[in-house]
Specification:
Layout (H helix, E strand, L loop, with lengths): L26 E5 L3 H13 L3 E5 L2 H7 L6 E6 L7 H10 L6 E5 L4 H9 L4 E4 L4 H18 L2
Parallel strand pairs: 1-2, 1-3, 3-4, 4-5
Length: 149
């Protein structure tokens, strides 16, 4: 496990901004089919002190997902074979209330409304602003803390 990094000692990430502080044992599951975006998100989140698990396909995430593990999902909306909304629906079908933060470079109003109605924490546009992502993760941390009680 990485140690939490404070804003004072976090490395600056030119793509996303600076880091924040993470809760121990909280993992961010990042799902994006674009390897460059996936790598940048993982670097940024680790710099902010978070444990991460990267998935380039939704099915790989669903196959090994452990709902008892504290964490949230940072999920790309538009992916081949299974989009982000389908992943969210599958988690709901399985009875899993995992907090989800959607990312999209070309999201539509109907897609964002559907995601939010189904319980998404946030729906963020790409390119991301680091502070917006970290704020959404803080909300997800609190929701997950309540979920696991």
């Amino acid at each position: 496990m990485t140690r939490p990094v404070t804003r004072g000692d976090a490395d600056f990430c030119p793509v996303f901004g600076d880091g924040g502080m993470a809760l121990p044992d909280f993992t961010i599951f990042v799902i994006d089919d674009d390897q460059g975006i996936l790598d940048a998100l993982i670097r940024f989140l680790r710099t902010a002190g978070y444990e991460t698990k990267a998935y380039s396909s939704p099915q790989a995430f669903l196959d090994e997902h452990d709902p008892s593990m504290p964490g949230c999902v940072v999920l790309d909306l538009s992916m081949p074979r299974m989009n982000g909304l389908a992943v969210q629906r599958e988690l709901v079908t399985r009875g899993i209330e995992r907090p989800i933060i959607f990312l999209s470079g070309r999201g539509t109003v109907p897609a964002s409304v559907e995601a939010m109605k189904a319980g998404a924490v946030d729906f963020l546009p790409k390119p991301l602003k680091g502070d917006e992502l970290l704020s959404a993760i803080k909300v997800a941390e609190e929701r997950d803390r309540v979920r696991l009680r």
